[in-house]
Structures are given as C-alpha cells and as structure tokens.
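B., you asked whether I could sanity-check this one before it goes into the benchmark set. Here's the sequence:
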Amino acid sequence: MSVVVKGELILQDRETGEQLTIKASELDFQSDVIDEDREMGAEIFHVAEVEVEIWGEIRTVRIEVSEYPEGCLNYEDLDSGGLDVVQSFTVDIVLDDER
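And here's what the prediction gave me:
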C-alpha cells in the first residue's frame, strides 16, 4: 500500500498575506507500523515533513496519514507550521500496482 497525494498545498502568512505553495511531488513519506496487534490488523502511520521559509523564518509543515485497517485511510492530519491553509492536498491509500 502507498500514500498518494495529489494537488498542492497553498499556505498563507496571516500577518503579511504572503502565500507559498508545496507541490505533492515535494513530499517524501516515511512509513512505520504502529500497532500490529489491533483487531482489524496492523495500523500503518505515514509522515512527510517539508521545511518552508517565510520572511527568513523556517517553518516545518507536517502531514500525517493513518492507514487502518491496512489499505484504508483512517485519518489525515496537517500541521501547517502556524500558517493558514488556503488550499490542501487530496490524500488516498492505494495498492502499489494501482499507482
């Protein structure tokens, strides 16, 4: 199974209005099995982080995706590094041969 992210994330600094864009192709997900012994099988946790710079300040944007049961999107969470989200990615879990 793989996390597939499409589109782009547009973030905006609420003080200055400056926007920045993170493309789906910039994400590199790291995956880890969190709990192998759950009732419906393993829970797999996928995380990608991207550092962005706004007005000389580095911020970390973090996307977390939980897959449980295996092959099903359980939840996704976005930490925008304190920036406002104007537009977000679409996230899905697919079989590797469906990519």
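One thing to flag: Residues 2-91 form one domain. Otherwise nothing jumped out at me.
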